[in-house]
Amino acid sequence: MKYRILLWFRSPWIGTIILTILGIAGNYFKWDLSLNLRFALGSAALLIIFRLYGLRFAVPALLAINIPFGFGGSYLFMTGLFGLEILFLYFYFKWFNKGILFKGDLLFWGCIGLPLVFLMYQYRLDEMGIKMMTLVILEQSFNSIINLLIASILLESIISRIKIDIKPTYTISLGRIIFKYLIAFVIFTSLLLLTVSSHQQFQDIRGLYSSYLERSSYIYKQDIEGSFSDMRTVKPLMNKYKKNFYIDSVLVSPLGSSIYSTLDNKTTKQLVQDGSYESLMIKETADGARIFHHFPLNRLTLIERWQESYFVMDIPLNHNYRLLLKLTAAFYLERIYIFYIQSIITILIVIGIAILLARPISRKITKPLLELAKASNNIPRKLVKDTPIDWPNSNISEFHALIENFKLVSLVLENQFLQIQRDKENLEIRVVERTFDLAESESQKRAILKYAINGIISTDHQMKITEFNPAAEQMFKYSREQVIGRPLSDLLVIDTSQQEDSNHSITAIRSDDTPFQVELTRSEILAEESSFQTFFVHDLTQQEKERAQRNEHERQLEALNDRLREEQGVAEKQKSITGNLLESVQEGIVMCDSKGIISFINPTMLSLFKIKDYTGYSVQQLLHHIEDQLIEGTASWIEKLEQFLNGEPHWNQGELVLLKNEKILSLYVTPVTDTVQQIEHGVILVFRDRTEEEQVKQMQNELISVVSHELRTPLSAMMGYIEMLMIYQDMSIEKRHTFIETIHQEGQRLSHLLDDFLDIQRIEADHAEYHMTYIPLYELLQGICHQWNPDSRDRIILHHEGVDEVFITGDHHRLIQVFQNLISNALKYSSAESLVHIVIEELPHQIRVSIEDSGIGIPVEDQARIFQKFFRASSASEHQIKGTGLGLYITQRIVNDHKGELSFVSRPNEGSVFSVLLPKPKKNDSAHSIE
Predict the structure, then answer these.
(1) Helices (H), strands (E): how many in the chain?
(2) Rounded to the nearest 5°, which phi and psi values hold at 580?
(3) CATH of the domain at 790
(4) What number of CA atoms fall less than 13 Å from residue 65's CA on the CB side?
(5) What angle do CA 60, 64, 66 make, to 5 degrees?
(6) How far apart are CA 628 and CA 43, in angstroms?
(7) CA atoms of 613 and 669, how far apart (whole Å)
(8) pLDDT digits over 617-653, tens only?
(9) 221 near 59, Cβ under 8 Å?
(10) Which residues form the domain of 318?
(11) Strand-strand pairing, 322-328 and 836-842
(12) Are residues 612 and 698 in the same domain?
């Protein structure tokens, strides 16, 4: 239960005990809010007990709650004062049965309570002073208001939620809730401000005293220490400072006893030795002096402790002497009294204004609700009398929404009322129509008798025939006139005592005395003085024949159903296969009916365009969604497609669809037509992803261009040098040798280029042949490095971290091809001054060779495709570096075939590191050839 804790208050005894304990705690643990504001919250519990359980429970609670005040005069006065309060409230509620606790208690304290407090403290006026007594009265006023406010709020929370004794629960006015919470907000805000200001004043006072003592002690200490040579001058010096600076002082010996003092013996002893004061150290100076604020331990209130407190400065002197300076704290209390009186009076004025304004504010807030309650009172009656409802208006959004909801409810009730009126009119019309129906029923009955298929025979209570319809005439071969008045037994052999109304078979007799079987159903109608019976006769002569025909029809129908079920199963299976096929294909498929409503869309279509499932929507909505993803200026096909869907005969199959995400699609549209019935069921849109095909096509075109260029370059060079050799027969031997060497190099270059294309053909056809042997890796790489010209060779640095030679198992020629490609790329894609580092590392199960350069690097967007066939990074084109885009593709395939791994790390404009991981050969491995 949400308010389970409140159930304890249902019992007066348990509730009184709980509240009494809380009241004692509230009076015992008082709250010192400021200098003279000490709150005791026990009277709040007393007010709750009185209001919940009455006077007989409040009196013993009163005696117990005031125990923390002691059993002296304070106890008697507080008990009497709160007793008068309870008694006053008792008679107040007697006179005003619907009185309010808040108003009644304020009346008591204004007229009786506070005057009594004033009279009680008046005889102590000389002892306390007018300002002190004013603070005490203001403190009591605050205490009363706070206790009253807490009691009022808690009382309404309890009484509105649980049933106390025989008192029922009741609802609380929203205006009262707002009123009390507004006052509570003002009071607690004011108290918070006063508390902050009070504590700030305390800190300011301590700072003033500390500063005053510190300044005064500076010269005082020097004079005292200067008087140690003649101790007789110490006493006059101390009296002089007391007179001039109002500071008492005590000179303490190294043994801790007082030597000289400007105070009496009791105060001196108390200052030096007594522990009846608690001390709060405020500050410690640079020369070791400490400033304390001493409070008395035997005073309850904060103001009493401040009145008797004093500030002490303990100053260390030469030769272990100590000088104690004492300054009373009561010096500034006069100004504090005035400040507090002004502040509290101001707060009380603010609280008074808040009380005056809270009621109009709460009424202003709750006015729309009251007007709404008045307007919505007895809405059905107003609807019946057609009385207009004066709905209120409000600019508060919550109230406005509530009023609109009530208007809606009223409108619904009005519509229902009108519907009831219409139903009433319809019922009246139906009664009139029913009257006419009854008038026509006789003629309808005669029509039924005349045109009924079965024979109908009616008899009176003597079982004589009174009605004989045409079907019975035809069945029995009697006319109606021949049988009216005759006994029913002349026509039907039945047991007249049988009262069964269900169908049963009997024998009937025709006019020619021929018997035949009929099915008879009897219905008896009881009247006030007689009874009537109606017999429905069905000729069973043709029953067997009809039954045989029916069985044959049922057999044929069952066979037809079996055939239909079989065909339906085949259709469902075909539909499932077709559905799975459509969902699994790589093309995006959209099927729509003849009205342009999408009936199917496969997952590929959803992933191609990143769209929701448009099944059930029009195809135009889908096309408008797709249009947002198209490259600007390429949406003309949508207009053509819409024209085709609207009946235009022409459509170009394979229309290109260009998306912003760089995908290229082609669109095919196929009408779905029933060729037999010539009915068009709709169309199928097929979006085929041609992105990879276009990329491959582009790469192939680029390859043809590159290959033609690469082949033409060495051929052109070879042809040029050959022609020069043929023309210049008298060329020197050295120059001729140089030309022949160049022709040889260009021929080798052309041979390597052709080898690359042949390698691709063999690798992709899985016809690559590998001759596996043991290979010393360092010697292999060293030999590869020496194949370059001297300039390039000087840029290659080969590192081997191990001592022993590292062996691998692989195809010697293919591994040379792998490392040549990687080293060639490192040299080609880096500057002529940069170095290429080749590092051999021996891992537990693998050998790693890393080729590191500091060249142009690979752009981040190209790194995912760097190992694709014919692909060249954009940075290669920017720097005009020639190549076919086949080297890394072939290299990766060869490394993979060696059960190795090729990886790289590249940073644009910083360089790349390509790493080849090859497995270590096993001890029992032998050289072999694999294909």
Answers:
(1) 28, 27
(2) -65, -40
(3) 3.30.565.10
(4) 32
(5) 120
(6) 74
(7) 20
(8) 888 888 888 877 788 777 777 777 777 777 776 677 7
(9) no
(10) 224-332
(11) unpaired
(12) no
